Amino acid sequence: VAEPLAIGDALDRVLERVRVLPDEETPLADAFGRVLVQPAVAAVDLPPFPSSAMDGFALRSDDAPGTLPVVAHIAAGRPSRRPLAPGEAMAISTGGVVPEGADAVVPIELVEERNDDVDVPAVGRGDNVRPRGGDLAAGDEVVGRGTRLGPAQLGALAAAGVTSVRCARRPRVALLPTGTELRPGATELRAGEIYESNTVMLRSQSYSAGAVVRELAAVADDLRATRDALANGLESDVLVTSGGVSVGPHDLVRRLEAELGVEEVFWGVAVRPGRPLTFGVCGDTLVFGLPGNPVSSLVGFELFVRPALLALQGLADPRPSFRPGRLARAVRRNDSRDALLRARSHLQDDAVVLETLAGQESHMIARAASADALVLVPRGEGELAAGSPVQYLPL
Ligand code: AMP
Ligand code: MG
């Protein structure tokens, strides 16, 4: 058996095999979570005109302090029909066009209104005026290539007059659970059976990585059924199997994939949980074999499948984004494998403190349900003391 690869080396080998998917014009309404393959450029200046930041009075700063006649009322979307002349004031709402000739707005709270006049205090040139193009100029990049679109990016694009963007198409992921013992929910379990739980978990992980999912029915550990299901799953951008990649006589996945023309890139990662994880390619299809224990599948997806899905969409940095934190209590290290421990995080004195949970075995998905973080504990001798700096992945 070959030496298992370090996590980072295994991830390098995955990312080396990724080619960004073809792109398509994507309306903003469909673009949440998608990745730009081209920069998006503003169609208009932002703001598109000098805009009032306050409800108040537009005037020339040179005319303040003083008493000025109010010659017009400007609402948002209803500009004044004429410029402001020296010695005049115009009432204006937030978002109204500051008229030509005015260079400041005095907030309504600071003035005294008398009949058709207004008493204004001194005001600085430019006060409470949002200059045209102050946020962004037409032709400027709003969001860069390789960026994943979240709420702030989508809001910026819409404000800048962008209605559609160029994104890689969504990766199509086939999920195939393997194991004779697996039963769908809402059936009675017979001797030796368990509920199939990896698909719904991997589906949600895939979905949150921007993929569309095709669920294949669980297959028994039977050569014929497994081969047919694998062949079907290979008709996707990514095939993710769970189970059947270990060393037992019923672990058929790798053998059958080889028969179907999958080139195995690696099998075995120095990680706990998830050591027998396998990765290969078949034509343009990426093929991941996650170990069946639910926590192994959960963790294996975060370490390898999610980065691959993001890289397929052209994300600039698709690697897992580990963050710094501190251990709440000491943990024993594994001498040969890096561990990803399920933990609960909270903020304490400006640091994220990570409470590793009791029950870290790879079948303990119910324990994992109270975790919001995976803490990376590098392999080594002895313990990591309480308070040690560590890295963690939010779950
Ligand atoms: P395997 O990787 O096939 O050796 O499976 C390891 C353990 O994970 C076994 O106890 C399986 O019953 C369990 N397992 C495999 N696949 C699933 C699944 N889809 N849902 C829940 N448990 C699973
Ligand atoms: Mg199995």
Molecular structure report:
The protein is α/β, with parallel strands linked by helices. The chain is 18% helix and 31% strand. The chain has 7 helices and 28 strands. It has helices spanning 7-16, 151-159, 198-208, 223-233, 253-259, 294-312, 365-368, and strands spanning 23-27, 40-41, 51-52, 56-59, 66-74, 89-92, 104-107, 112-114, 117-120, 129-130, 141-143, 164-168, 172-177, 182-183, 194-195, 212-215, 238-242, 263-267, 271-272, 278-282, 285-290, 323-327, 331-332, 338-348, 351-356, 373-377, 383-384, 389-394. The strands form 8 sheets. The chain has a 6-stranded mixed beta sheet with strand order 7-4-6-5-9-8, with no helix packed on it. The protein has a 6-stranded mixed beta sheet with strand order 16-13-17-21-20-18, with helices on both faces. Helix 3 (198-208) packs parallel to helix 6 (294-312). Bound molecules: adenosine monophosphate (AMP) and magnesium ion.
Short account of what is shown:
This protein is an alpha/beta fold. The protein has helices spanning 7-16, 151-159, 198-208, 223-233, 253-259, 294-312, 365-368; strands spanning 23-27, 40-41, 51-52, 56-59, 66-74, 89-92, 104-107, 112-114, 117-120, 129-130, 141-143, 164-168, 172-177, 182-183, 194-195, 212-215, 238-242, 263-267, 271-272, 278-282, 285-290, 323-327, 331-332, 338-348, 351-356, 373-377, 383-384, 389-394.
